[in-house]
Amino acid sequence: MLNSTFKIRISGRVQGVGFRPFIYNLATQYKIKGTVTNTTFGVEITAQTSAEVFRNFYDNISLQAPSSSKIEAITFTEVSEQIHFKDFQIVATNSGNPINAPLTPDFAICSDCKTEILDKNNRRFYYPFTTCTTCGPRYAITENFPFERENTSLHHFNMCPECQKEYNNPKDKRFYSQTNTCSVCGIQVWVTNANGEKLYETNPEIFPFLANQLKSGSIIALKNTSGYLLLCDATKAEVVQKLRLRKQRPVKPLAVLFPSEESLHKNVSVDDFALNELQSTVSPIVILPSKAKSDVAINEVSPINRTIGALLPYSGLLHLLCHETQIPLVATSGNVHGSPICSSEKEAEEKLKNIADFFLHHDLHIEHPQDDSVVRLTKKKRKIILRRARGLAPNFSLPSAYKEQIQSKKIVALGADLKSSIAIFPNTYLYASEYFGNLSDYDTALRFQKTIQDYFSIFKFQPEVVVKDKHPLYESGRMLEELQIDKNNIKVEEVQHHIAHFSAILTEHNLWQSQNKVLGIIWDGIGFGTEHEIWGGEFFEYQKKEFKRIQHFENFNWILGDKMSKNPKISLLSLWNGNPDEIRHLFSANEWILFEKQKEQNTLQTSSVGRLIDAVACLLGFTYEMTFEGEAAIYLESLAQKAYDIQTAKIDYLEGEDLTETILSFKIIEKVVSDSKQNISKEEIALNFHFTLVKVIEKVANFHSFKEIAYSGGVFQNALLVDLIEEELAVKFNCYFHENLSPNDENIAFGQLNYSVNINS
Ligand SMILES: [Zn+2]
Ligand SMILES: [Zn+2]
């Protein structure tokens, strides 16, 4: 039979996932001749064979593709080819052209590699950077694309003859593995004390030493594959307290690394849904309920509610350390309060020297440091992303129908200030960065700027449009000034905060072309609305590229700026219409005079649901200052969850009220107060409040005849609220929640960008 030549183009996540070795073996199996190579868009195959064999080969590419790959498109053409290939070869490429593909994320260590590093007879015994074509760091160490060793931090390391042999052997799992190293040729680890003095340099000694230190109460700063982690014994109250004190983090829950599945089951309630998440290649922190009898010092690890942010060892380093310690360890980002995660030895020693007793360093450069991603799961098995970072960002898979309907535009969006992020549209993909934190922190702002510049260089990109928030004083807007770009040829666009949230959820569910009008329920703590209004309890109508604010929560005084976001009692004061004497005891005499005066002179109003939640939490016992954002909301949710779990009957506090003008926030407060006076339990009141919010949505949707309801904003990090909405409304309406983005301000950049693509084109 006559041989023809075919070119196959595959796009999607096909680099750094063992795709070329897979193709090589498949082609060899079919005795096909030709080449496979990484390109700027993915992978290209030249195959010389008969049409019939080609058909089988082609079909099997999609059927048998490596588990960590994601094929988005595969096409072929027959070409006239002069060359007659003698065999099939993997051809390395470094075209220098900008990439047009997803940036392959880091993958958790696979079970085979885990087994090898604990096998005394294996040459990788106790080598913590053992990887293969399906596992190990990728994005964290990528300096450039396509994904080839010389484009990563591993280009400093030359493979030893043994590693090279594996790399060249098509039958080996490390065939053509770009991250292949071993203890002979690979990454070196060493341990220092807090003064920077080297103590140990050999792998097998290091881990027992660190394990002993951890067990005797030391705090370790460990350079993981995507940044430093601070680790300590999670079972000893005094040790966790010491970490909290040194890190200046009084109550915000700390994540816990469990040494094994067994230990996980012993300490937290974990079902298959949660276990799947924890054991996925992303391997995020999953927030789970603590068991009543737990080894973890729960009051110190998670003082405000009995949940634990659980992690399983996802890197060789963590796996070896867990193997030695066999106890749950607190594992929190290696940073000082509010700053980004440390990623270099120098930075860590400088910033963490007053926190850590010992450091585990290594000489693999981390190009793109990222925190662990954090997710929570609702009882009705919905996933809520709280922090989108390692394993997820900066990739985002747009709905394919949406991708077809939009025009590419050279655009970058600068996001919000408090949970800052970047979105960029440099090619046919859209990239949504990890969250960076609060831009008022100097180091956070620096990392934000560096990441934008990195994107510009990876994608060889000059933006034509920069999108920012409408807030005139936002730091993210000011970042524009810092960018090294030609500002004369840039169009600057502004998008209102809550419209950006709405745009994010419209995009995730491809609702821009919806035939039905869509109701946007956009609730959060704070977003610039108008000169005199801070919004946060918004109802928008979207139809045919038009947004209309159709309803909002009743305005109340926005007083004392940032103080109000931290002190629930200030929100209560602002929402209080009753006898002042009933709440006066919450304030000092001076505070009372000052706050009352502020209330009188105030000109700013807010419709924030976040602050309404704070006020209700305050009435139900949260009378102190918050130490982290959302603390009062978590308190209120966990009260309500208790009532929900015992199937308490729910009451709508706005039953029979006229909500056509505004949603009656003051009335809700009155009802909470009167129920409290009648000795109805806090838990029941909290549940009624949640239920009232759900009923508000239903009433607005009915009044304006909506069928489609989309939800975004930080308030929807509340798992109970999401479940209640699903329970009450999913039968009558189509409800859309974020699935691959966080509902909080992390999605603002993504929303801004998509607003611009759809509305300003
Ligand atoms: Zn592996
Ligand atoms: Zn080697």
From TrEMBL:
User: What does the record give as the reaction this protein catalyses?
Assistant: an acyl phosphate + H2O = a carboxylate + phosphate + H(+); C-terminal L-cysteinyl-[HypE protein] + carbamoyl phosphate + ATP + H2O = C-terminal S-carboxamide-L-cysteinyl-[HypE protein] + AMP + phosphate + diphosphate + H(+)
What range(s) does the YrdC-like domain occupy? 204-391
Asked if the record carries the keyword Zinc-finger, the reply is yes
Query: Which EC number(s) are documented for this chain?
Result: 6.2.-.-
What positions constitute the catalytic site?
A: R20, N38
Gene Ontology terms: biological process: protein maturation
As one GO molecular function, the record gives:
double-stranded RNA binding
Keywords, comma-separated and alphabetical: Hydrolase, Ligase, Metal-binding, Transferase, Zinc, Zinc-finger
Q: Which InterPro entries match?
A: Acylphosphatase-like_dom, Acylphosphatase-like_dom_sf, Acylphosphatase_CS, Carbamoyltrans_HypF-like, Carbamoyltransferase_HypF, DHBP_synth_RibB-like_a/b_dom, HypF_C, HypF_C_2
Which residue ranges does the record assign to the Acylphosphatase-like domain?
5-92
Q: Which biological pathway? A: Protein modification; [NiFe] hydrogenase maturation
Q: Does the keyword Cell cycle apply?
A: no
**Top enzyme class:** ligase
Q: Which family does it belong to?
A: Belongs to the carbamoyltransferase HypF family.
Enumerate the NCBIfam families for this protein.
Answer: hypF
PANTHER family given in the database record:
CARBAMOYLTRANSFERASE, CARBAMOYLTRANSFERASE HYPF
Name listed for the protein in its UniProt record: Carbamoyltransferase
Q: Which organism is it from?
A: Flavobacterium sediminis
Designated gene of the protein = hypF
